[in-house]
């Protein structure tokens, strides 16, 4: 489950507990509820804001709840349950790609599969250096990537060799290597230091006092394939022109 607190203009969304933070229906619903609450607060008091997402314990998120999926008892039942999680998680990515503020993932532990996708759905990612890896496990466990996973990875992992190693080698990236490869922006000594670094960055970004709607529109324009894959409609040129003219 998740908790949400606000520190002036910075929202801190935490995945709580000491477990693996597997993404099941309850966790996904809690994430979406927190993001909806952020939108509601921002709509009531417009201004410059930012978001930090972190997690307690050794894991940022170890991906979808495969144990729950396998409890179906048959291969077809397991696939159906996993497909339901894939569908439920897609709007979380859409929520983050359209959120009207800068977003920072504080990767405080292992981030695998859908947990990796949760991290790179943010604008920035900072990671602890003393523990944790980034890992797309699908190849190792015999699962294909959902289409929107591939679109998001193509959008956020620019180097083709790194994308190859993530997807076709199932490589586990340490924090230092993830920074060298451009997957995360900075590395910090511990979970607490990582969260503090994320909060500092988020505070700096919120202080720019950017228009949230404009920020979200520019982000969606920067990653059109990923946005289309999660069902975010592009603003048409006329609507963009009206918005631009209204600011003059």
UniProtKB/TrEMBL annotation:
One GO CC term on file: peroxisome
GO BP: any one term: fatty acid beta-oxidation
UniProt entry tagged with the keyword Cell division: no
Transmembrane stretches, start-end: none
Keywords (A to Z) from UniProt: Lipid metabolism
InterPro entries with a match to the protein in the record: Enoyl-CoA_hydra/iso (IPR001753)
EC number of the protein: 5.3.3.8
GO MF annotation, one: delta(3)-delta(2)-enoyl-CoA isomerase activity
Protein's UniProt keywords contain Acetylation: no
Protein name: Delta(3)-Delta(2)-enoyl-CoA isomerase
Organism field: Zingiber officinale
């Amino acid at each position: 489950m998740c908790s949400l607190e606000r520190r002036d203009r910075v929202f801190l969304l935490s995945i709580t507990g000491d477990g693996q933070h597997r993404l099941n229906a309850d966790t996904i619903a809690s994430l979406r509820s927190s993001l909806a609450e952020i939108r509601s607060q921002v709509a009531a008091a417009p201004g410059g804001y930012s978001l930090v997402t972190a997690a307690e314990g050794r894991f940022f998120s170890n991906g979808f709840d495969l144990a729950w999926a396998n409890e179906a008892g048959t291969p077809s039942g397991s696939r159906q349950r996993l497909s339901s999680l894939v569908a439920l998680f897609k709007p979380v990515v859409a929520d983050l790609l359209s959120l009207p503020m800068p977003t920072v993932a504080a990767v405080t532990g292992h981030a695998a599969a859908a947990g990796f996708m949760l991290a790179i759905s943010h604008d920035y990612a900072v990671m602890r250096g003393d523990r944790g890896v980034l890992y797309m496990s699908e190849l190792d466990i015999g699962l294909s990537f959902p289409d929107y996973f591939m679109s998001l990875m193509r959008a956020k992992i620019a180097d083709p060799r790194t994308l190859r190693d993530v997807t076709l080698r199932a490589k586990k990236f340490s924090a230092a290597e993830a920074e060298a490869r451009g997957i995360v922006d900075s590395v910090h000594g511990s979970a607490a230091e990582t969260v503090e670094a994320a909060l500092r960055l988020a505070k700096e970004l919120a202080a720019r006092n950017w228009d949230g709607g404009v920020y979200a529109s520019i982000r969606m324009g920067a990653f059109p394939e990923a946005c289309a894959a999660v069902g975010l409609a592009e603003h048409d040129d006329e609507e963009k022109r009206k918005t631009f003219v209204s600011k003059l």
